[in-house]
Amino acid sequence: MNTLNTLNTVNIAKRKERIDRAIKARCNDIYTLLSLKEISYVIAPKLCLILFIFIFPLLKAILGYYWERVFYITCLIAILAISWELLSYVGLVSLGQAFVFGTGAYISGIFNINFHIPVPFSILLASGFGALICTLILFPASKIKGIYFAMITLCIPMFFSKVIEATEIFGGTSGISGISPIGNYYVEMYFPALVLIGAFFCLRRLMSTDFGLLIIGIKDNEFSLMSSGINIYKIKFFVIFLSSALGCFSGACMCHYYQFVGISAFSLDYSIIPLACSILGGIDGFSGSLIGAFVVCPLSEMLRGFGTLRIVIYSVLLIMFILLVPEGIFSYISRKYHQIERWKEI
Amino acid sequence: MERDIILEVRDLSKSFGGIKAVDSLSLNLKKGELLGIIGPNGSGKSTLINIITGFLKPDKGKVLYKGTDITGLSPYKIANIGLVRSFQFIRPFYKIPVYKNVVISLCSDRVKRLKGGSFGRRDEVAIDLLEELGFERDSRILYKETSEIPHGYLRRVELARCIALNPDLLILDEILSGMSKPEVASIIPVIKRLNDQGLTIIMVEHRIKELFQIAHRVIVLNFGRKIADSTPEEVMQDQTVRSAYIGKAKINFRR
Ligand SMILES: Nc1ncnc2c1ncn2[C@@H]1O[C@H](COP(=O)(O)OP(=O)(O)OP(=O)(O)O)[C@@H](O)[C@H]1O
Ligand SMILES: [Mg+2]
Q: What is the ipTM of this complex?
């Protein structure tokens, strides 16, 4: 009995004919990349993103220190949002990204202060170790699904901040201060920015491979996947680890930026903001999270001038975005972008 | 124990609340056999299959596959040792193109092991397989998103997903239901051919007429108990079987 072997020797002519048909079927949906114009149409958005992220830190003299700070924080939040999005790919809706963020921040701080590890390495080590710790806690929790997983993740960061508060480990409520900064302005700016771009494009690439197919399959239908002989636990473990590593990286960078880490790293803000970014930007795909972060973070910074009214205005703006662009900013923009192209042709 | 017995179920029981879905059931299956399982709605057929394939834990009893105890093993491990099942309520992967459903099976450890690391291009193998199962005429459908295609096609995709794993024992839970007459007529020869090539098959069916044409042996379940186990001809004559079906559904026992 060998069904696949008989298939491997399917006759060549038949296969050729089939491939022709396949090309035809696909070409209806995909524009051919023949002219320079069409190629630029496809790569323009990616190029814009890369250029923006590379050029922005160079504009310090024009824009001033304040906007560079906003840019830095936006990059970190974008990484956190991507890490949230990655978890949601395997059907895990987390309300506790603050846990991953805080773990990264604390570990990097401790490595730096107690073990005198120089900064870039403490960030990388914190991403690795932190991811391991987070995975060991989140992976067992991932057996529970839907709203229950959300509830558990919501509780975990609160639990840790209360433990730190009560036992006064890691500096208790006063936190750990005196953490070394990265130092060099360009390293500080480009390090997270490069990781953001790298993670973004690598993850998009990953999702289009066969392994990405399995990741998408988990959200769609675990049972079919298991009956296809796929070890879903291995895949979930990998995805949780990867997502945690990104989240920890984001937290670690933040602690060196402020040169301080306290229980505020576990605060609800860091759980909610990535979620807001993803929802606002468009829930499918990493592009949505990225764009969402670049809308939400500068918005929240700009509103600081309003004092206590800030949260009110912020909420109203978010609600308006969700009501007016329910598909998400990214889906909206990409739809308009494709329309421009069609319009030109006519 | 005989060597050519591929599956042995010993004294299996499972109840949900007060309902005994499967009630001390035992059965044997020889290599190369095509076994039909029939029974009225709610008689425990799907529950039995869910237990065999690891999706449910039995209250009591054992499942032996090729002589080893597989009771309570994780479903993906069971699939990887060649015991593959289809779902009665098929749940394909909706957000990916149709042929990718089959590619997923080709990513399993089992296929990697059997075909080695150099297992060619998965997409092509998947499409070949689907075309063999009758997508030849409308191969455009294979590239559409799964949620867009008519429901009738999904069962064939489900069958392809199972066959792609290169199973030793294939369990099909109502694979024919919801198919039109011509579709059934095109699928039955495929199943028959797989069986002729040596694949052991269990078919759970309500379409008794078609099942009896190809089954070597038929087991009848009622309230989780086995009430008959013999050739299709004998089952048709059986009085207990006939009375079990009375009032449930009008089933045409004539060929
Ligand atoms: N998860 C479950 N929880 C509670 N009861 C269940 C569950 N699954 C099955 N049952 C009950 O067990 C009994 C057997 O169900 P099962 O699905 O095995 O029947 P079946 O023979 O496959 O029926 P059908 O021909 O309709 O598919 C039914 O009474 C059903 O209500
Ligand atoms: Mg059933």
A: 0.86
Residue A106, domain member (yes or no): yes
Q: What is the number of the ligand closest to the CA of B14?
A: 1
Side chain identity at residue A284, one-letter code: D
Q: Is residue A321 part of a domain?
A: no
The CATH number of whichever domain residue A248 belongs to comes to 1.10.3470.10
Let me know: does A231 contact A79? Beta carbons within 8 Å.
no
**pLDDT tens digit sequence for A43-52:** 888 899 999 9
pLDDT tens readout for residues B13-54: 999 988 899 999 999 999 999 999 999 998 999 999 999 999
Q: How many domains is chain A partitioned into structurally?
A: 1
In whole angstroms, give the CA distance from residue A174 to residue A176.
Answer: 7
Domains, chain B, ordered by start: 5-246 (3.40.50.300)
Q: Do B104 and A25 touch (CB under 8 A)?
A: no
- Tell me if A170 is assigned to some domain: yes
Q: For residue A187, give both structure tokens.
A: 């390293």
Taking the C-alpha atoms of residue B72 and residue B79, their distance in angstroms, rounded to an integer, is 13
Task: Determine the residue among A28, A143, A228, A235 to mutate to test chain B binding: the one whose Cβ has the most chain B Cβ atoms within 10 Å.
Answer: A228
